[in-house]
Amino acid sequence: MEFINEAILHAAGQWWIYPILTIFCFIDGFVPILPSETLIVALGALSVTSGQPNMWFVMAAAALGAIAGDNMAYLLGRHVGVERFRWMRKPKVQRALNWARYELDKRGAMLIFTARYIPVGRVAVNWIAGTTAYPRRRFVILDIFASVTWVAYSAGVGILAGNWVHEHPLLGVGIAIAFAIVLGIVIDHLLTWLHRWRDTKGAAAAASRAASMAAEARAGTPPTAGQASGTPPTPPQLAAPADVEA
Predict the structure, then answer these.
(1) Quick one: which of 89, 99, 121, 125 has the most CB atoms within 10 Å?
(2) Closest Cα partner for 125 from 139, 115, 135?
(3) What is the DSSP letter of 135?
């Protein structure tokens, strides 16, 4: 155990940890191999327990890789499509792609931002954004904001976990990764519930408007032929006196 701790601390203090983190986040942006936030939270925990690596450099490297990876997914979606590779045809990936296509049409800005926090969801959303020709400039702006906040969140999780176990770097890494995975699942389910709630609310509002319009239509009196043509109605003829006497 002591040897593993020393090896982890030695790796955390090396310069090459930053480009490796950038590459890891870059690949995770368009191929869902392993959630890149696990490496960020692990390094965050190490920075608290050992003072290395420098968290500002970690956050910069991770943000650079995440932004580049998301934009790569966008470009691949535009030029490759969503059925070229075998992993895209897996049921889980197809469900994510269908969900992303449906949600992107309804609330693109919100989806691009929140999907960054969902490992498979961010790949699906960014890929579909390219496939559907979502405005590139808007996508880049939203993705930069989403990636920076996601990196800060991941680093914060690692720092929080590292503060629990100051003298055991390996334990701190394990706790940070487990905490990040659980929190990611919670966020995933919360966002899914929020989207469904908004869909239900929107459907109820549309049904209410339709019912109100139907009620107003039933309450109105259809115009007569004269009214429809713009001619004032002819007043009823009074009976002639002779007829009355008769």
Answers:
(1) 125
(2) 115
(3) -
